[in-house]
Write a structure and sequence with these properties.
Elements: H1 3-14, H2 18-37, E1 42-44, E2 48-55, E3 58-61, E4 68-71, E5 74-81, H3 83-95
Helix pairs in contact: 1-2
Family: Belongs to the bacterial histone-like protein family.
Keywords: DNA condensation, DNA-binding
Protein name: HU family DNA-binding protein
Length: 97
């Protein structure tokens, strides 16, 4: 599902306009990005948590030439699914089997 398909699903469920749902989704994703960039954690009870992880600097290898190179440390975005979310996924997957 891409962003437009997600917006269409929310419009169908809420009856709100496509423009207002797009604006709301953009605001939510921007708030999540800003909070994570600042090192905050966002917890959505029943859904999951977004947080910032760290990847240490390491040595890598260019697959084409085999040459060693240094990969810089970086922050990563992490998502941990909440129990209700995991349960909902497992119910749907067990029904489809």
């Amino acid at each position: 599902m891409n962003k437009q398909e997600l917006i269409d699903q929310v419009v169908k469920k809420t009856g709100q306009s496509k423009g207002s749902i797009t604006e709301a989704l953009d605001a939510v994703t921007e708030a999540i990005k800003t909070a994570i960039a600042e090192g905050d954690t966002i917890q959505l009870v029943g859904f999951g948590s977004f947080s910032r992880g760290e990847r240490a600097a390491r040595e890598g290898r260019n697959p084409k030439t085999g040459e060693s190179l240094q990969i810089a440390a970086a922050y990563t975005a992490k998502f941990t699914a909440g129990k209700a979310f995991k349960d909902a996924i497992n119910v749907k997957s067990s029904k489809s089997k």
